[in-house]
Fold this sequence. Notes:
Blueprint: E1 2-7, E2 12-17, E3 52-57, E4 63-69, E5 84-85, E6 91-94, E7 100-103, H1 117-135
Antiparallel strand pairs: 1-2, 1-6, 3-4, 4-7, 5-6
Amino acid sequence: MIEIRKDYVLDRWSYIADDRGKRPEQFKKVKESKSDSICYFCPGNESLTPPEIGRLKKGKNDWKIRWFLNKFPIVNEDSNQEIKNTGHFFESRGGFGFHEIIVETPDHRKQLADLSIAELKSILKTYSLRIAKLSEEKRIRYVQIFKNSGSEAGASLVHSHS
């Protein structure tokens, strides 16, 4: 369940997404080798992600960047926007939006700092493309790109993605 709850102390709304706890955690076992674990974002494992929205091709069948809806979103397009009040202190409503993943490179070992200027330009162009496309949706008022890097920042997978 995804919802937004009212914080009466700070007078703001906070996102709550129960399913986010079900994400895979490659960072839990930092000292172990990752060679045996399956990477959902590596080439050949595309069937392990939700259907692809788009990709930048690198040859006939290869990709250099791909994007798709997040399997464990913080928001979704089907959420109920009606504010609910339980009769106590809690007000909540559904968390509406589109939560996409952009896999920035097919190379599992590379992070943004390892990429060439040309590769970084392609990533920035992809961000721009997705912002423009999502902004066309009448219900969307704000688009944000974010990147978690490492488990301490909230990333659950090692493969470079935003």
